[in-house]
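Give me the fold.
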Amino acid sequence: MNAHNFRSLIQRRHVVPLALALSVSLVALCGLSYSRAQEQEPEEREVVEKIPKHLPIKVKIKKPEKLKDAKNEDWLDDMEIEVTNTGTKPIYCLSISLWMPDVRHENGTMYGFRYKLGRIALVDLGEPIQPDDVPLRPGETVILNPPANNIEGWRSLRKKGRVSNPKKLEFVFQVINFGDGTGFVAPTGIPLPRRRSSNDPRTRGGGSGVRPAAAGFNAHPDADTAAGRDAHPQPHPENHPVPQPEAGRLLPGED
């Protein structure tokens, strides 16, 4: 073997290990970059709006990207919703709940917040309108937030380690009261009053068969089949949410 061939062999022997080392380094670098990219991808919280489409309101979540960011510990500051009256009647009372299906009280009921417009007594469609009741008129828009002490109640539970941040949020309809004895109730948006046939025995004896109470108030849509769609639980007192198997538990301190 002459000197030239010997030097070529030595060079090839150095080049092969160097190429292998470079390949391994590139693979490791790509793997690290992919891993970091995955870590940097924000986790997304599921946000579901379950407002029935036949209702005369348009609901817009003001900051959906903030609510969807599961790493956003300050999501409570981004809960605004915008509600527009798209109908022809003034709305004297509106109630929408925000449920957290994966956050449960020790008795199994889910926790939630309430957005409301108007006096809580007006969840009963038979409640008389007072002179100081101000409606949301057709075409008007209002910004709603849960009560501040609802939010403080949640923060207190978080601080005590009794709840974790939700993985899912569900906006669920509860009540619309037009102030004239008519409205919509329950998560499916049942119109009231519901007129019964003259052959219905419940309408005999002078009764109309109409019950203008807030059917399903504080209910979650999953409760419709469990409780029965004709169930009419009485409205809960404003500051005394009653957790029932078919209902949700509003947060402490609701006003």
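The CA atoms of residues 109 and 216 lie 15 Å apart.
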